[in-house]
Design a protein that fits this description.
The complex is a heterodimer of chains A (114) and B (115). Chain A is an all-beta fold and 114 residues long. Chain A has no helices and twelve strands. In chain B, strands 2, 4, 5, 6, 9, 10 and 11 form a seven-stranded mixed sheet that branches. In chain B, strands 1-3-8-7 form a four-stranded antiparallel sheet, with no helix packed on it. The chains are: A mainly beta (114), B mainly beta (115).
């Protein structure tokens, strides 16, 4: 069965610290990979996505993620976080062939201390 | 361009009552999806419409849930009768075409509380 595992439930960092959120997926086929973010009181929005090509994907607000096929991983990184990055982050996967349903991880709540 | 909208934003009902949630996708988007997040758990897929047709309803939990998309525009999700375990946030998303590079755009969600 398809599944997504996010390693951390809650991460607390100070401003300017580096961030890496772990994500592993289980799927027997070609996949699309996503990171979505939900800021307090706002909609879920797409942070970045991988479909094909360069496994290092750059997204909005200085975020990037690296697809490592051999490890079934798609970790999210940011070199220096800001207080405004406080949000919940969701790793997600869908089948490349259909791009229909998205399978989400359980989410990682990121709290940034000012 | 207006985003995906959902109504109501919150709903509090008693067990056994009926509730209808509405989603208006981005104009021109043929694909409409419903998801649900139960407290503390992951966001789970419920079903997918392409225009007015149900493409995939594998995530619908049981026959108390009925989704419709008459005319291929807005969609409704009815829960009848509601049970305590139906509490959660119901998200709707839409995308323009059915293909591997589509992005799904999410609405703000409807928070349903069943007492």
């Amino acid at each position: 069965a398809q599944s997504v595992s996010q390693h951390n439930h809650h991460v607390i960092l100070s401003e300017a610290a580096s961030l890496e959120l772990g994500c592993n997926y289980s799927y027997g086929g070609t996949v699309n990979l996503f990171w979505y973010v939900q800021y307090p009181g706002q909609h879920l929005q797409l942070l970045l996505k991988y479909f094909s090509g360069d496994p290092l994907v750059k997204g909005i607000k200085g975020f990037e993620a690296e697809f490592i096929k051999s490890k079934f991983s798609f970790n999210l990184r940011k070199p220096s976080v800001q207080w405004s990055d406080t949000a919940e982050y969701f790793c997600a996967v869908s089948a490349y062939s259909s791009a229909s349903k998205i399978i989400f991880g359980s989410g990682t709540r990121l709290s940034i201390r000012p | 361009e207006a985003g995906v909208t959902q109504f109501p934003s919150h709903s509090v009902i008693e067990k056994g009552q009926t509730v209808t949630l509405r989603c208006d996708p981005i104009s021109g988007h043929d694909n409409l999806y419903w998801y649900r997040r139960v407290m503390g758990k992951e966001i789970k897929f419920l079903l997918h419409f392409v225009k007015e047709s149900k493409q995939d309803e594998s995530g619908m939990p049981n026959n108390r849930f009925l989704a419709e998309r008459t005319g291929g525009t807005y969609s409704t999700l009815k829960v009848q009768p509601a049970e305590l375990e139906d509490s959660g946030v119901y998200f709707c998303a839409s995308s323009p075409t059915k293909g591997p590079t589509d992005t799904q755009y999410f609405g703000p969600g409807t928070r349903l509380t069943v007492l």
